[in-house]
Design goal:
The structure holds two protein chains of two kinds. Chain A is of the alpha/beta class. Chain A contains twelve helices and twelve strands. By secondary structure, chain B is mostly helical. Helix content of chain B is 63%, strand content 4%. Chain B is built from twelve helices and five strands. In chain B, helix 11 crosses helix 12. The chains are: A alpha/beta, B mainly alpha.
């Protein structure tokens, strides 16, 4: 919204510089935290199989993107260390879209143009997926998004679209049920960040709350880069809600908001969507003020799943506390790798069509998320259950499960 | 410096506090900072009860319009926020006054200061115990952040601007944007993309604040405001009362004539960058305390706001930068009485456009930095 003339021209100028500098930087970025290097070091023999990783690996949402990318590479590295697939090594091609739909489209074109590339993990943001899907569809390139929750994405007839994450019309209504029936809130204030994820989730929560007969539901918005919430908190104080629902994709922003709300003396309960389930960025970042806050989640806490133990240990040992997307990215990558394994022919040939079919027909895949993975005809996740978790101390504790069979 | 000394583990001590100081226990005390509220028989008990009741009263009668106490609360928020804008704006204005150049890397100097402060705080205070008293750690963080940022700012001038001194006016501007993107990415690659947490609770437990009538002034905001005001007064004195300040003003007015008087323009330029960057570095730590978290992208919007403040007050004019910052902060926090909070940033940049259209030289323009 803040498109003053000066800023616009500054942005234009900075784009020029960005082009020059970006090419320099990507040429010399080293170090362990840099994306795209570790797996790039895998010997690129003639016959590597490539998979694409699309997501916001730079810019403001890069924390989410890099958490995912690290998990994707981890899954690929494990397969490569075990000898690859059909004797061929797997390589991750990184496509940074910066959460920008236009760039997601470019990334899709780039992936599609590479004949050795047979499947894509991501894009992560719903609007990026939405923009890139036509290209992937045209090229028969299977897409498994680990975090794009907008319901519309799987309802447009694209055969390539799959996701390993809840839909907003699963977790939104589940959250609304919990708010109305378990917490017995009377007045709810729903805050979103104007993004397709935030607004979509907020719409779903509001719709279900109204269906449940709650009349006092109010909505408000913040900008994704807001750091000061004194203004919106004033509005919220006037609305005097029992519960504040945060439809925000950025846990650090939510933590900041909760912290400021508490220090302004506001005492309502707080609940959020799956994107906020983050130990480091939500609980720790809130300085203890997120205590008692609820979040929804597509699966149980990874810490509680025996199959996930090794992954959690290895990931946290290498990269520190993980976000919810780390687990879903790892699972999505393993589903893709498994599909490649199933469709590889004698002589090591793999076709995009076979991989797409194999991903689509995935049934009862037992991974780390604690429930068997499969897809509906449209590519939505089968059999997911929405969990409601609560912040207690420095961790999330399960308080309730809500079946996601409502759609 | 701060109204209350608070140790991280022991019970809260209200050393030398006046009746104004109290703990607003409407909020559950955070587990990081157990607050001990003595019995109701001591002095604090009275205020403690009062504070416990008041927010509930407020919540039970949601107002339709902004009430007076909320208005005052917003005025205070605006002034605190504005003082930080002002602190960053000073660096913009000083550099423009001397070089007539917009240092768009200034926001990243501010961001680097915040990260330096975070590194010092994490090293000295550590996870639980830490080997320094929190307030000493904070002092050290402010000191090193300002020192580090000053050196960084001066280095940027030497490496990225000085070689372009005789180039077209667009070149240093582009160079500044390049430095800005470079620093953002260096910090991101060096520390990771995650948001970094400032251990604010070690100094200012949430809920600790000054209560003035119906208005709560959170201790951390009081601290931020206090430090900013002190720094601004010191800078003002430096520029107006010292030899050095006179040399700076002379260079800003006419660097050639100043050079004839034996003032080395190069020395003054370096000094300007050192001073402006030191202020930005401190502002970085203050913002870290204010919001409790920092990220590598924070310099961009802060830089834009500070630039707006500088232009609003009259770029090149130091008191103008301070005034511009305060006006911007106030406009942002009071403007939400009339528009949706989500359009908060629109206020800032509308002000910028209006200033450019109606009074291009700013509110206090061209009093200090006269250039022909």
């Amino acid at each position: 919204m803040k498109k003053s003339f000066i800023q616009a021209s500054v942005i234009n100028l900075s784009l020029v510089v960005l082009l020059v500098l970006g090419s320099l930087l990507s040429g010399c970025s080293g170090g362990q935290s840099s994306p795209g290097k570790e797996s790039g070091a895998v010997k690129a023999t003639l016959s590597t199989i490539k998979i694409g990783a699309a997501g916001p690996f730079s810019g403001q949402l890069s924390k989410i993107g890099l958490d995912s990318l690290n998990a994707i590479k981890m899954a690929v590295d494990e397969v490569n260390q075990a000898g690859g697939i059909g004797g061929r090594q797997v390589e991750v091609v990184v496509g940074d879209d910066g959460a920008d739909p236009a760039r997601a489209l470019t990334v899709a074109e780039k992936f599609a143009a590479d004949p050795a590339l047979v499947g894509v993990i991501g894009p992560m943001n719903s609007d990026a997926v939405n923009a890139a899907l036509p290209v992937y569809e045209r090229n028969g390139l299977v897409v498994i998004s680990q975090s794009a929750t907008n319901p519309k994405l799987t309802q447009q007839g694209y055969k390539v679209m799959h996701r390993i994450c809840p839909r907003d019309d699963d977790q939104g209504p589940a959250a609304a049920l919990f708010i109305a029936q378990d917490l017995k809130a009377q007045r709810v204030y729903i805050l979103d960040d104007k993004g397709i994820y935030g607004q979509g989730l907020a719409d779903q929560v509001e719709k279900k709350l109204k269906e449940l007969g709650m009349s006092q539901v109010q909505r408000g918005q913040v900008s994704p880069d807001d750091r000061d919430f004194a203004a919106i908190l004033l509005r919220i104080r006037q609305a005097n809600p029992d519960l504040l629902f945060l439809a925000l994709p950025n846990p650090a922003q939510a933590a900041n908001l909760v912290r400021q709300a508490r220090s302004a003396g506001l005492k309502f309960q707080v609940m959020g969507g799956d994107g906020l389930k983050e130990k480091d960025q939500l609980i720790k970042a809130s300085g203890g003020t997120a205590e008692g806050m609820y979040v929804t989640s597509i699966g149980p806490s990874l810490e509680l799943i025996p199959e996930a133990k090794n992954f959690v240990k290895a990931f946290e040992g290498k990269y520190g506390a993980m976000s919810i997307f780390s687990g879903q990215s790892y699972e999505a990558t393993r589903v893709l790798l498994d599909a490649i394994k199933k469709s590889i022919q004698a002589g090591g040939k793999v076709s995009r069509a076979d991989v797409l079919a194999a991903v689509h027909n995935t049934r009862d895949y037992r991974g780390i998320l604690g429930f068997p993975i499969g897809f509906t005809d449209k590519g939505d996740l089968l059999g997911g259950t929405i969990y409601v978790l609560q912040v207690k101390g420095d961790d999330f504790v399960q308080v309730k499960t809500v079946s996601a069979g409502g759609k | 410096m701060a109204p209350v000394s608070h140790s991280g583990t022991g019970p809260t001590t209200h050393g030398g506090a006046q009746n104004l100081l109290m703990v607003n226990t409407a909020i559950a005390p955070s587990p990081w900072s157990p607050l001990a509220h003595g019995g109701a028989d001591n002095l604090w008990g009275h205020f403690w009860r009062e504070a416990k009741v008041r927010p509930e009263e407020q919540q039970s009668k949601p107002g339709e319009a902004m009430m007076l106490d909320q208005l005052l609360q917003q005025v205070f928020n605006g002034v605190a926020l504005g003082s930080v804008y002002a602190l960053i704006a000073l660096g913009y204005s000083m550099v423009y006054g001397i070089l007539e150049m917009l240092n768009f890397a200034h926001g990243e100097i501010f961001m680097s200061g915040a990260f330096l402060g975070w590194i010092v705080l994490s090293m000295t205070l550590g996870g639980t115990g830490g080997w320094l008293p929190p307030w000493v750690g904070l002092g050290l963080a402010l000191l090193l952040a300002s020192g580090g940022a000053a050196l960084l700012g001066a280095a940027v001038e030497v490496l990225a601007y000085r070689p372009l001194r005789r180039a077209s006016r667009l070149s240093p501007l582009l160079s500044a944007l390049g430095v800005s993107i470079f620093l953002q990415n260096v910090v991101m690659l060096a520390t990771g993309a995650r948001v970094k947490i400032y251990p604010v609770e070690r100094f200012f437990p949430s809920g600790l604040g000054l209560i003035l009538g119906e208005v709560t002034l959170p201790a951390v905001k009081v601290f931020v405001l206090g430090v900013s005001l002190i720094l601004m007064i010191l800078l003002d004195l430096l520029v107006r009362k010292t030899r050095l300040g006179r040399a700076m003003r002379a260079t800003a007015e006419d660097s050639e004539a100043a050079a004839y008087q034996g003032i080395s323009p190069q020395r003054i330029i370096t000094l300007t960058f050192l001073l402006g960057s030191a202020l930005a570095g401190i502002a970085g730590v203050l913002v870290g305390l204010y919001y409790g978290q920092i990220d590598f992208f924070m310099g961009f919007s802060a830089g834009m706001k500070a630039f707006t403040a500088a232009v609003l007050g009259g770029i090149g004019n130091l008191r103008g930068a301070m005034l511009g910052g305060l006006i911007l902060g106030l406009a942002e926090s009071l403007g939400v009485a009339f528009i949706e909070p989500v359009y908060k940033d629109v206020i800032a940049f509308t002000l910028l456009v209006l200033a450019l259209l109606l009074r291009p030289s700013g509110l206090l323009g061209k009093q200090v930095a006269e250039k022909v």
